[in-house]
Design goal:
The protein has 190 residues and is α+β, with helices and mostly antiparallel strands. It has one domain: Roll (Nuclear Transport Factor 2, Chain: A). The chain has five helices and five strands; from the N terminus they run αααβαββββα. The protein has a five-stranded mixed β-sheet with strand order 1-5-4-3-2. α4 crosses α5. The longest helix is centred in the first third of the chain and has 16 residues. The protein is extended and about 90 Å long. The mean pLDDT is 86.
Length: 190
């Protein structure tokens, strides 16, 4: 009987439709497994600053790291605020990954980074001088949730036309005793 497989298939489909299993009915879509991302292609220095703010707000480690320069093209350097320089001598992108993951692991709310650009210079590279306030609602009772200071972000463009931070210098604002971003990096580098 050459048509046996076709007959078996037809009989199976008929049996399933009689039993009402609704295999051809549409179903509700599954919810997304990850939160949405507002990362935009870093084709301008301003896009990098916007992406940094969004990555903080979304507690998105991947997008946070995408704000930095590709280290196969150019090295990355972080210079902490003066009071923490003895504690942070060398800081790499792996340190950035570790601190951000550790800090964000116990988040309880929505982080917020506000900044006020003081000035910028544009040549082949760009430097932003930015006063910042960062609220990060982690659950560590010994670390500050609010820090503020000044960051000088040097951005460079890679051969693919993507901008990224290749140097970050953190400074305490004059006449303030607030902790700086450097303190959070030091505290959560675990």
């Amino acid at each position: 009987m050459p048509h046996a497989p076709a007959l078996i298939l037809a009989a199976t489909l008929a049996l399933l439709s009689v039993q009402g299993c609704d295999i051809f009915q549409t179903r509700e879509p599954a919810p997304p497994t990850q939160s949405t991302s507002t990362f935009e292609p870093p084709v301008t220095p301003d896009a990098v600053l916007h992406n940094l703010q969004s990555a903080i707000r979304e507690n998105n480690l991947d997008n946070y790291l995408r704000c930095f320069i590709d280290t196969t093209f150019r090295p990355f350097a972080f210079v902490p605020s003066q009071d923490l320089r003895p504690n942070i001598t060398v800081w790499t992108l792996e340190d950035e990954r570790r601190y951000f993951r550790s800090m964000g692991a116990t988040i309880d709310g929505t982080p917020l980074l506000t900044n006020a650009i003081q000035n910028t210079t544009f040549y082949a590279d760009s430097t932003y001088n930015v006063n910042y306030s960062l609220y990060f609602p982690h659950k560590d009772p010994f670390a500050p949730k609010f820090v503020r200071g000044n960051m000088q972000l040097h951005l460079a463009i890679d051969p693919q036309g993507r901008w990224g931070i290749d140097q970050w210098r953190d400074n305490r604002l004059p006449a303030t005793t607030d902790s700086t971003w450097s303190y959070l990096k030091f505290w959560f580098d675990k």
